[in-house]
Amino acid sequence: MLVVLRAGDAIPSVAAHRGEFFRWIKDGVGEAWSGEWSEVDLRDERASLPDFRSATGFIVTGSASSVTERATWMLRAQAWLREATNASVPILGICFGHQLLAEALGGRVTKNPRGRQIGTVKITLTGAAKPDPVFSREGEMLANATHVDSVSELPKGAELLASSPLDPHAAFRVRRAWGVQFHPEIDGELMRGYLAARRDIILSEGLPHDEMLARAADAPDAVALMKSFARAGR
């Protein structure tokens, strides 16, 4: 079983048309995983967090919340992530999930001093120091992103796997836990929906909204990373 740990909600205007993160992740993974799926909302403090030995892997979603808020539910999730990572449980943290994982393991998350990153962006893959079932190559790829915070300091012992012009720590790995600051589950249509919904904010920050909208595209190489994570658990 793959379990999606939900940390937030999609923008309502986008969710009305395409559903929530769980659906995007499941659709993106597609045929790479033929087993069962489940979803747990990390924000529901009345619910028990899953036994990390009960599933093949866990995917932590994005969120409009900030890890820097250090809300009770975030601290509880971090403790769970720390224990699961130390037990070598397969984990994929996406955007907020990437940041939550980093803080859980001793890293640091802050508001990105380089500014907001949103749209289809270029990611540079550094190449893993040893064989990696998710990040298996070097070079560049496109990915869709939308975030304001970033991992300013990696956890001790983390392996850097990718960077971008606005984010030097775009992906990392600790044991069998991977964090990616970008959104492999967001395709071109979803990205355009986010850009449209964030138009006023983007313009107020002096960013070229129309250019970003024109460049928004599918990012199959990023989706492939999510598929590889799912296959690694088979």
Helix/strand layout:
Elements lengths: L1 E5 L5 H7 L2 H9 L7 E5 L15 E4 L11 H15 L4 E4 L1 H9 L3 E4 L5 E9 L13 E9 L1 E5 L5 E6 L2 E8 L2 E4 L7 H10 L1 H6 L4 H7 L4 H13 L2
Parallel strand pairs: 1-2, 1-3, 3-4, 4-11
Antiparallel strand pairs: 5-8, 6-7, 6-9, 9-10, 10-11
Give the key terms:
234 residues, alpha/beta, nine-stranded mixed beta sheet, two-stranded antiparallel ribbon, 8 helices
Structure description:
By secondary structure, the protein is an alpha/beta fold. The chain is 32% helix and 27% strand. The chain has eight helices and eleven strands. The chain has helices at residues 12-18, 21-29, 72-86, 96-104, 188-197, 199-204, 209-215, 220-232; strands at residues 2-6, 37-41, 57-60, 91-94, 108-111, 117-125, 139-147, 149-153, 159-164, 167-174, 177-180. The strands form two sheets. It has a nine-stranded mixed sheet, with helices on both faces. A two-stranded antiparallel ribbon has the order 5-8. A hairpin with a 2-residue loop joins β9 and β10 (167-174). The protein is globular.
